[in-house]
Each structure stands twice: as C-alpha cells, then as structure tokens.
Write a structure and sequence with these properties.
Length: 63
C-alpha cells in the first residue's frame, strides 16, 4: 500500500486482533504492532504514524 509516497504494509498475526505494520522513510525502517479487530482501523493508524514521521523528518531537515 502507499500513503503520501511511502510504501507500507499491514499484516495479520497469529493473535486475533493484532496487526503488524512496517514502512520505510529514507533509510529508516519503522515497524510495530497495533491492536484492533477492524482492519481499516489498523491501516488508518499506520497512515497516521506515517504522517507523524514525515512531519518529524521535515522539521529535522529544516535545521
């Protein structure tokens, strides 16, 4: 999947309601897990995380 030019993936785990996610911004790979029974909510949470990381990256480049 792609959000604002960042490729990411969200996959299920063996535990019901737990999702693994991963994305890369530049050379940095971010991974994590989120708990929800709704797959669209898991996707949205990753997109929000990508937004935060992109904003953080923009601030760091400004200095």
């Amino acid at each position: 999947m792609n959000h604002k030019g960042v490729d990411y993936m969200v996959t299920t785990t063996a535990t019901p309601g737990v999702w693994k996610w991963q994305f890369r911004i530049g050379d940095e790979v971010k991974t994590g897990r989120t708990e929800t029974r709704i797959n669209l909510l898991a996707i949205r949470r990753v997109q929000l995380r990508i937004d935060r990381e992109l904003k953080k990256s923009e601030r760091e480049q400004a200095f």
